[in-house]
Amino acid sequence: MQTHIVPVGFDYDRLIAPLVRDRLDVDRVVLLEGAVGSEANVEYSRNLAAKLEKDYRNLLGAATERFVVEDVYDYDEAFEQAFELINAELDREDDASVWVNISAMPRTVSFAFATAAHSIMVEREEDRQRIHTYYTVPEKYLETELAEELHRGIDLLSDLQGAVDDPELAERVDERLDAAEELLSEFDERGTTIGAKEFDGKHILELPVASFSNVKPFEELILFTLGEHGEFESVSELAQELARELGEEYTDSFRSKVIYNVDRLGPGGKGYIEQEEHGKSYRTRLSRIGELWVRAHSDD
């Protein structure tokens, strides 16, 4: 059974053409459509998803299912959704393979889905050959062609300006010419996008691309404890909390065990924990990838 997970975005050909042209045996397609942006963008994405749903069914005979990505700029949410979705599709059948198309949607979603797929490959070594991440290169981009046509349209409107006798039509020509010139000037100066949007007081969305590593049971307990309680002022404080949760006596041996495992999970190891020195102690908390691990495994 071959399942393709396809975040939709604003592309059509790159999401279906390679499957048709390469004659892949696609049994199931999961479409993800964004719910953030202007009303026009959301509507466009929704209509495109509906068209893809119909064509996957008619051209490939594939069953389709549609999901919504509530915030295409929330990396953590997209990662969690991808992690759950890929695992669920792998577990459908013993021979199920999952193909993740990262050609469309904002890069936050593409990075999240690619990183989630790779993380699952690491955790499920026996299923590594059943997980695939792919990208489709477009034959051409339409932005430059649209700009060239806009140039020609401006030339035509300029020629019409002095030749139109109807005052109302002349006013419309002037308005369209001004708007086209302004838009083309923006395109020539800035490219295809404008500005840098702010999220949570910042203009940079950091994308942690480190993949998961296999985690042992005691390491899992440490990560979940940090996820539940947040930062600990020291490893000793963390060890005391772990001893309470396990109903064990807090001894030097137990504390040493915690220190050893925290080191394995830290920057020099798996990278799930970060520490900050203060005095003779180390504040201990989850790193960004550690937070993602806890988030992805909290329902296991």
Describe this structure in words.
Helix content is 52%, strand content 14%. The chain has helices at residues 13-21, 39-60, 75-90, 107-123, 142-161, 167-190, 217-229, 235-246, 252-265, 288-297, and strands at residues 2-7, 28-34, 63-69, 97-101, 131-134, 273-278, 281-286. The strands form two sheets. The protein has a five-stranded parallel beta sheet, sandwiched between helices. Strands 6-7 form a two-stranded antiparallel ribbon. Helix 3 (75-90) crosses helix 4 and helix 8 (235-246) crosses helix 9. The longest helix is centred in the middle third of the chain and has 24 residues, at 167-190. The model has no long low-confidence stretch (mean pLDDT 90).
- Stretches where pLDDT falls below 50 for ≥5 residues? none
Order of helices and strands: EHEHEHEHEHHHHHEEH
CATH superfamily of the largest domain, by name, is Hypothetical protein VC1899 like domain (Restriction endonuclease-like)
CATH topology of the largest domain: Rossmann fold
Please summarize the sheet with the most strands.
5 strands, parallel
Tell me what portion of residues adopts beta-strand conformation: 5-15%
How much helix, percentage-wise, in residues? 40-55%
| Overall residue-averaged pLDDT value | 90
What is the total tally of β strands?
7
Strand order of the largest sheet: 3-2-1-4-5
**Termini, distance in Å?**
24 Å
Number of domains: 3
So what's the CATH class of the largest domain? Alpha Beta
Any idea what the CATH architecture of the largest domain is?
A: 3-Layer(aba) Sandwich
Structural class: alpha/beta
InterPro entries: DUF7776, HFX_2341-like_N
Domain HFX-2341-like N-terminal: 2-141
Pfam family, one: DUF7776
Domain DUF7776: 142-213
